[in-house]
UniProtKB/TrEMBL annotation:
It comes from Ramlibacter pinisoli. SUPFAM superfamilies: Metallo-dependent hydrolases (SSF51556). This is Amidohydrolase family protein. The keyword Cell cycle does not apply. It comes from the Bacteria. Pfam families: Amidohydro_2 (PF04909).
Length: 286
């Protein structure tokens, strides 16, 4: 079984020629998506360290997602994938409001090691794009160009449903099961229900990434079993992708892997390879 992690971050510290946004530099400690989320570790992670972490946990490949606090540059992620071309691909950040965005999008997949785009909508300056029509061209062009998208979109899954219906050829992957990053345990129920409702769209998939971050219980996080079973039953093994977000886990990387490979008894052994990597590999043509 080839195990592919659907989300890892690598990043470098702020430096003058590759600066971090001012608001990120002002934050202390590890970066977080929103207040109350489990923070990522404060120290940067490079490709060599991530590859070693993967080796120790039995993870063969991983999708690098550049972290939003470091800004919109994909250079460090692409350099990591170039260093380990058999192990990493990148779902890069993209600003649809930037000058020349549409022209840049046209050649997106021509970049070596670039597999798609990861959009984040967890802040007001981005979530408004889901309603005002300003990036309607982006969804249409990604559909036409065959660019798969990963979406961090907590609380706005109904907007994803509208996009999926309007663009049936566009592959949309929901990050972190659609759960708000500051929620734990039973508080996740509403977000899980909203995600399950999206399963009716065949072009929507779900990343079971960072799952341990949403439980206050220790491994194997039994209080999440019912939610994971509901998502698995709705999406099936070919549209549910395991992932770790390893740099903010409250458990070991190995436990995050074995949570799915050993602790969850509702995934049949014959279907487990799809959840652990094959489904994502096919979607990204990797």
């Amino acid at each position: 079984m080839i195990i592919i992690d659907s989300q890892v971050h690598v990043w470098e510290a702020h430096r003058p020629d590759r600066p971090w946004p001012a608001e990120s530099l002002a934050a202390a400690g590890g970066f977080v998506a929103v207040p109350g989320a489990r923070p990522h570790r404060a120290e940067p992670v490079d490709a060599a360290e991530m590859a070693a972490m993967m080796d120790a946990a039995g993870v063969h490949r991983a999708v690098i997602v550049p972290p939003s606090p470091a800004g919109d540059s994909n250079l460090f992620a692409l350099e990591a994938a170039q260093q380990y071309p058999d192990r990493f691909v990148v779902m890069g950040r993209f600003d649809p409001m930037a000058a020349g965005a549409r022209e840049r999008l046209a050649g997106w997949l021509e970049q070596p090691h670039m597999a798609g785009i990861r959009m984040t909508f967890h802040k007001p300056q981005w979530s408004g794009w889901l309603d005002d029509g300003s990036i309607d061209w982006f969804w249409a062009d990604c559909e036409r160009l065959g660019i798969p998208l990963m979406l961090l979109v907590p609380g706005r899954l109904e907007a994803v449903g509208r996009i999926a219906q309007r663009h049936p050829g566009l592959q949309l992957v929901i990050d972190h099961l659609g759960i708000h990053s500051n929620l734990r345990d039973a508080a996740c129920a509403g977000d899980i229900a909203a995600l399950v409702a999206l399963a009716r769209h065949p072009n929507v998939s779900a990343k079971a990434s960072a799952v341990p971050c949403y439980s206050n219980e220790p491994y194997p996080f039994r209080n999440l079993d019912g939610y994971l079973r509901a998502v698995y039953d709705a999406f099936g093994p070919r549209r549910l992708f395991w992932g770790s977000d390893v740099t903010r886990l409250p458990c070991s990387y190995t436990e995050a892997v074995e949570h799915f490979t050993r602790a969850l008894d509702f995934i049949p052994p014959a279907e487990l390879p799809w959840v652990m990597g094959r489904g994502l590999s096919e979607l990204l043509r990797w």
